[in-house]
Amino acid sequence: MPELPEVEVTRLGFADRIAGARISAVQVGKPLRWALSVAPAALVGRTVTAVRRRGKYLLVDMDRGLLLLHLGMSGSLRFTSGLPPAGPHDHFDLMTDKGTLRMNDPRRFGSVVYVEDEGAPLAVKLLGGLGMEPLGDAFDFETFHAGLRRRKAAIKQVLLAGNVVVGVGNIYASEALFMAEIRPTVSATRISRPRALRLHAAIREILARAVQRGGSTLRDFSNIDGQSGYFQLEATVYGRAGEPCRVCGTQIRQIKQGQRSTFFCNNCQKY
Ligand code: ZN
Q1: In angstroms, rounded to a whole number, what is the distance separating the alpha carbons of residues 240 and 212?
Q2: How far is the CA of 184 from the centre of ligand 1 (A)?
Q3: Would the pLDDT of 271 be above 90?
């Protein structure tokens, strides 16, 4: 599943190149999770002005209205010229005078939705409950800590829920909690200020590093593929059940929390 760093790398891969592009045609394939909610022809003639990101949504701004793109479980984007005709898993083509933005999504949990502005009911429904952005200055520690204090659920679950901070997916939650030496099962409300500070720093560092690594791995930005894998190369605990902890040598443990696997070191993460 594309996580926030991959979505950000995808954004960096085409945002500058598509800015100023005039839309010449729009082709829609099989239905995605949400309907486009505008006649494709209505977008023709509009100009893409910028591409922003909120959580795992890409916001494609036009001179009027915007598209909210979500890659779902298996979606990926390309933006280039000379693409072959749309295949069976290509469900959205935004053709412009600078190239075609194509969404490929075999499992079709992704979506491309049009809204007039971010105050539109559908935009509020999709974006309104999102927590703080973890990259950049908007990730305020006091707000983060206050958000944790209000939640009794296990810290791992609170991170995954995305309503305190967005983008800490299953892999990054295990990794950040290991780095901060916090047990994944501890109630969020019980996390002390010093530990919350470590967790705040760990989330920033891990996600920023993943974006950096993704950006350097994608040699050819004309082939944005959103593939996961290169973000996991240096996992310290994720996917390493039974292997020795890289800090203390204890075997990494795997448990289930809300149907998702969690990996941790019983010795390094005592609290
Ligand atoms: Zn350890």
Answers
A1: 23
A2: 14
A3: no
Report the SS3 class of residue 71.
coil
Yes or no: say if 212 and 231 are a contact pair by the CB < 8 Å rule: no
Compute, in angstroms, the gap from residue 93 CA to the centroid of ligand 1.
Answer: 48
Provide the pLDDT confidence category of residue 45 given band limits of 50, 70 and 90: very high
Residue 214 scores a pLDDT above 90:
no
Residue 59's DSSP bridge partners are: 52, 68
Which 3-state string (H, E, C) describes 196-235?
HHHHHHHHHHHHHHHHHHHHHHCCCCCCCCCCCCCCCCCC
Q: How far away, in angstroms, is 158 Cα from ligand 1 center?
A: 23
Q: Can you point out the beta strands (E) in the chain?
A: 23-28, 48-54, 57-62, 66-70, 76-80, 90-96, 99-104, 111-115, 253-257, 260-264
Q: Residue holding tokens 């910028």?
A: 50
pLDDT tens digits, one per residue of 165-200? 998 989 899 999 999 999 999 999 999 999 999 999
| Per-residue model confidence (pLDDT) at position 233 | 55
**In the chain, what are the domains?**
4-127 (3.20.190.10), 141-265 (1.10.8.50)
Tokens of 44: 């023709």
30 CA from centroid of ligand 1 (Å): 47
- Amino acid, res. 97: D
Which residues belong to the active site? 2-3, 56, 260
- pTM for this prediction: 0.88
| Two tokens, residue 112 | 């491309």
Judged against a pLDDT cut of 70, whether residue 228 lies above it is answered with: no
Query: What is the β-pairing status of strands 90-96 and 99-104?
Result: antiparallel
